[in-house]
Amino acid sequence: MWWKLCFLISLLGFSQLTLAESCNLGKVDSLHGSATVERAGRIVDVNEGIVICKGDIYRTDKTSVLQLAFRDVSRITVGKDSVFVVTEYEMYKDKPNVALFELIKGAFRAVTGTMTHGSHRYEVKTALATIGVRGTDFWGGYGLTENGLDVVMLSGKGVYVTNTQGEMVELGANGLGTTVLPATAPSTPKIWKDEKVAKAVATITP
After folding, report:
1. Whole-angstrom Cα distance, residue 95 to residue 114?
2. Other CB atoms closer than 10 Å to residue 14's CB: what's the count?
3. Domain that holds residue 18
4. How many domains does the chain have?
5. Which of 43, 112, 127, 156 is most buried, most CB within 10 Å of its CB?
6. Are 113 and 70 in contact (CB under 8 A)?
7. Cβ proximity of 133 and 112 under 8 Å
């Protein structure tokens, strides 16, 4: 009997260690309004200071904005009426760092940190395209173009946008953006007008 007890204790310890590692990604840095996070099948209210876990699904309402602060000092702002998933986040010493996210609804803004200083894969998946990051401050989201996804680079080293409908497009200058419509390749990048940039920023501003 004693060996069964030891086994259960060791299994519990391993589970707690695994949970701790998967929740050592960062914390919710700020919250304006109310939001929820779905974690391990449970939905709970978000509060400032709670840890970020791999697999978290964050949901904001129509007036709420929250900011995720990761341990590499990167920041992701989840905009109003949005659903955003933290799929994977790992920093390595001997292979490329990985940060994978998914935007299901709404908009976000990301400012990358030290994770992108070396070899890395930093991507945000959406229903229409995948947004990849070299190391930058960028915005992506729905709502500016009917049925479309818009992406703009605000500053930094560059952003790429790709899907199964066409070639990858590169956003290599501040203010350069692209639009992706259903079953369509990303549009040729062009500099956004100030009004469009302002509308994008408004979606992630309290």
Report:
1. 15
2. 10
3. 2-202
4. 1
5. 112
6. yes
7. yes
User: Which pTM was predicted?
Assistant: 0.88
Q: What is the residue whose two structure tokens read 């400032």?
A: 48
Cα–Cα dist 125/20, whole Å = 26
For residue 106 the two structure tokens come to 């709404």
Structure tokens at 76: 């992701």
Q: pLDDT, tens digit, for every residue of 23-46?
A: 989 999 999 999 999 999 999 999
pLDDT digits (tens, 9 = 90+) for 176-205: 999 999 999 999 999 999 999 999 999 999
Can you read off the two tokens belonging to residue 145?
């173009």
Question: What residue type is assigned to position 47 of the chain?
Answer: N
Q: Of 30, 98, 37, 112, which Cα lies nearest the Cα of 68?
A: 30
90's CB contacts (< 8 A; 6+ apart) are 97, 98, 99
